[in-house]
Amino acid sequence: MENFFNWMIMPVPKDEVIIWFNINNMTYEKIELYGDISKSLTRIIIDTYLGDNISETKITLTDEDNKSHFDWCWAKLIDDFKKENLHINLKGEHKDYFESFFMDIFYNQSEETIKNSINKFLNEIFDTEMGYSKSDLDLLLQLYKLMEKNIK
């Protein structure tokens, strides 16, 4: 149990983080870029979502409505970055990951505090100046690899 606890929250020394990045061929520029993509998607989703505002009328959005909204946001993100000469694949594991993430943490989440923590969470994961735990590094590497395979 102690090992799991250490993996979850104990900070990794900065020099070990640098070694981790080097071993996994991670560059600071791409970490920042992938963070910008993730944060842009979050902003699009939050800014255009109508679900929480109409709950007073007893109208609820279905899972299909939420999926349609995510798909629209995803397509907008891709179009926005294409204008900057960055081509993101429309389909793939990266889309599946973010779709699952937002379905759990945003669309199907009843706790406002959790919904409101998405920006903070993404900022911390992609902020190379913040301290990392081993679990943070594992998550960052997973996101980095997903994006690396699906961006040209």
Q: How many domains make up the coordinates? A: 1
Order of helices and strands: HEHHHHHHEH
Approximately how much helix is present in the residues? 55-70%
Q: Kindly, what is the distance between the CA atoms of the first and last residues, rounded to a whole number of angstroms? A: 41 Å
Strand content: under 5%
Strand order of the largest sheet: 1-2
The rounded Rg comes to 17 Å
| Molecular shape | globular
Mean pLDDT: 89
Tally the beta strands.
2
Uncertain segments: none
**H/I helix tally:** 8
What structural category characterises the helix and strand content? mainly alpha
The major sheet is characterized as: 2 strands, antiparallel
Summarize the structure.
The protein has helices at 2-9, 14-23, 28-48, 63-82, 93-107, 112-115, 118-126, 134-150, and strands at residues 11-12, 132-133. With 152 residues, the chain is mainly α. The chain has one domain (2-150).
List key phrases describing it.
single chain, two-stranded antiparallel sheet
Write the layout of secondary structure elements.
Layout: H1 2-9, E1 11-12, H2 14-23, H3 28-48, H4 63-82, H5 93-107, H6 112-115, H7 118-126, E2 132-133, H8 134-150
Antiparallel strand pairs: 1-2
Helix pairs in contact: 3-4, 3-7, 4-5
Describe the 3D structure.
- It is a single chain.
- This protein is mainly α and 152 residues long.
- The chain has one domain (2-150).
- It is 68% helix and 3% strand.
- It has eight helices and two strands.
- Helix 3 crosses helix 4 and helix 4 (63-82) packs across helix 5 (93-107).
- The protein is globular.
